[in-house]
Amino acid sequence: MEKNGFFAKLKGGLSRTRDALSQNLDALLFGKKILDVDLFEQLEDLLISADLGPRFTRDLLDEVQDKIKRRELDNVQEVKKILRERMLAILAGAPPLPEIRRDKPHVIMVVGVNGSGKTTTIGKMAHLLRSEDHEVMLVAADTFRAAAIEQLEIWGKRVGAPVIRQKMNADPAAVVFDALAKISGGYNGIMIIDTAGRLHTKINLMEELKKIKRVISGKLPGAPQETLLVLDATTGQNALAQAKMFKEEIGVNGIVLTKLDGTSKGAVVVRIVHDLALPVRYIGVGEGIEDLREFVSEDFIKAIVD
Asked: Is residue 179 classed as helix, strand or coil in its secondary structure?
């Protein structure tokens, strides 16, 4: 899908978020000449209800008030411009993820809670990377569900990526250890590791993820280069809670946000980056294989605040 075509898809997929944020903001500010106390309170409620969070909202309103005091804001419609600029600055200021090089192996460990669409997301990631001529290998370290292994194998065949697997209920860390032997044997491509979905509050399951990560770094120093958390955008504020827990416990260094086409809470992306300094690697705006793309801050902001 061409860039312009995907932007149209992105804008369409984010229509509910745009309605909740941009169009509601237009309706609130329409015909207003001054930002009085009542309008400030309504603006605050609107931004918080869009899942931008109280801290971001307070910072934004402080900036608006400061510009009013310095007579730099003569038209209330400029509030939208300030919102757009501040959101873009936050997203663009996220720490960069490691570059995927072609002269050495790159390991991506993918984690997430049950129902976040993790395995499907891995399949779409593999398709995207294969379309960019990367060599991709998938590792089925979710050994607790036969369906997860089968699903990953289906995706592997679909996108042309080999799948490393063992029998159901095998030790996930052992599966990963065996897969890493391919790298020792000279494999220089991308290895994407699927892990079992879990509730972020289950400590014993989190310990298993830590074990997998230790095995990876022990076998290949510096890996995994990416530990990506798949988040379901429709969960809104719960996505922030998940990201916080996974960052603290597992050390995730990037997120993939799925199901943006089904939510009015897509602005939670800004809140996650703002509060946790976690960059967004990919976003999903539909069910099709082409509907997962690398996150581009400018395109995202244009799609939700026009």
From this structure: helix
- Along the 306 residues of the chain, how does pLDDT read in single tens digits? 455 677 788 888 888 888 888 888 888 888 777 778 888 899 999 998 888 888 888 988 888 888 877 877 767 778 888 899 999 999 999 999 999 999 999 999 999 998 888 999 999 999 999 999 999 999 999 998 888 999 999 999 999 999 999 988 899 999 999 999 999 899 999 999 999 886 655 667 788 999 999 999 999 999 999 999 999 988 888 889 999 999 999 999 999 999 888 788 888 899 999 999 999 999 998 889 999 999 999 999 998 887
Helix, strand, coil % in the chain, rounded to nearest 5: 55, 15, 35
| pTM, rounded to two decimals | 0.92
- 227 and 255 Cβ atoms separated by less than 8 Å: no
The order of strands in the sheet holding 190-195 is 163-164, 136-141, 190-195, 106-111, 226-232, 254-258, 280-284, 292-294
Q: What angle in degrees, to the nearest 10, is found between the helix axes of 54-69 and 37-49?
A: 150
Which 3 state secondary structure label does DSSP give 227?
A: strand
- Can you spell out the DSSP letters for 60-120? HHHHHHHHHHTT----TTHHHHHHHHHHHHHHHTSPPPPP--SSS-EEEEEE--TTS-HHH
Helix or strand run (H / E) with residue 9: helix 3-13
The two three-digit tokens of residue 265, written as one number:
């809470």
